[in-house]
Amino acid sequence: NAGVTQTPKFQVLKTGQSMTLQCAQDMNHEYMSWYRQDPGMGLRLIHYSVGAGITDQGEVPNGYNVSRSTTEDFPLRLLSAAPSQTSVYFCASSYSPTSGSTYNEQFFGPGTRLTVL
Amino acid sequence: QQQVKQSPQSLIVQKGGISIINCAYENTAFDYFPWYQQFPGKGPALLIAIRPDVSEKKEGRFTISFNKSAKQFSLHIMDSQPGDSATYFCAASTGAGLISSGSARQLTFGSGTQLTVLP
């Protein structure tokens, strides 16, 4: 299993440009999410999905769109990039715990470092 | 509003020493408290987690201590090693880690602690 994969690893955009950050997982996890990581602020949830066709907003959704057409893929779209969106973006996935399990673990991808000029 | 406050921001420990990272939370609905470890250039990975029905959980050199009345929990790394040098994040969620609904799986993270263990 490749786990959670993200592309690209690095990206530089100009203000106003749009782009899509790709995320895929091969673990058949139904829950997927996007976080951004900024210095001194930890990881903040942008959007999440509990299954194909179902998405919802997290803590910081403005300026981002998501869709979930398949279980495997969960792309994050920046509609009109702004310098405030300069960050490291992480995609994560998790499964429903089976009976007797005590927690569900979120598996993170390697991240995409985005710079908006 | 930061619901999970983490301290210190950075920590330097000698090899063999004890590393202690503290977190405090505000939302009394939180009932699942994981710690994630992140190495440079990598995504975070689950290290250890606790639910509030116990006051302590130990896995190898890593221990979580939990104080429900004070709404605080901490990570202790015994016999710290240079390989432990990483950023550590505490987190919290509702649903005890068992509920499949999206809102219950949302993790609220602390701001992170950069740990350096000197050889």
Give a verbal description of the structure:
The complex is a heterodimer of chains A (117) and B (119). Chain A has strands at 4-7, 10-13, 19-25, 31-38, 42-51, 54-57, 64-66, 76-78, 87-94, 107-108, 112-116. The model of chain A has no long low-confidence stretch (mean pLDDT 91). In chain A, strands 2, 4, 5, 6, 9, 10 and 11 form a seven-stranded mixed beta sheet that branches. Chain A has a four-stranded antiparallel beta sheet with strand order 1-3-8-7, with no helix packed on it. Chain A is mainly beta. The radius of gyration of chain A is 14 Å and the shape is globular. Chain B has 119 residues and is mostly beta strands. Chain B is 3% helix and 50% strand. Chain B is built from one helix and eleven strands. Chain B has one helix at residues 102-105, and strands at 4-7, 10-14, 19-25, 33-38, 45-50, 56-59, 62-67, 72-77, 86-92, 108-109, 113-118. In chain B, strands 2, 4, 5, 9, 10 and 11 form a six-stranded mixed beta sheet that branches. A five-stranded antiparallel beta sheet of chain B has the order 1-3-8-7-6, with no helix packed on it. Chain A binds chain B through residues 4, 30-31, 33, 35, 40-45, 48-50, 54, 56, 58, 90, 92, 94, 96-97, 101-111, and chain B through 4, 6, 9, 32, 34, 36, 41-46, 49, 51, 89, 96-98, 100-103, 105-107, 109-112.
Summarize this structure as a short list of keywords or feature phrases.
heterodimer, A: 117 residues, mainly beta, 7-stranded mixed sheet, 4-stranded antiparallel sheet, 50% strand, globular, B: 119 residues, 6-stranded mixed sheet, 5-stranded antiparallel sheet, 3% helix
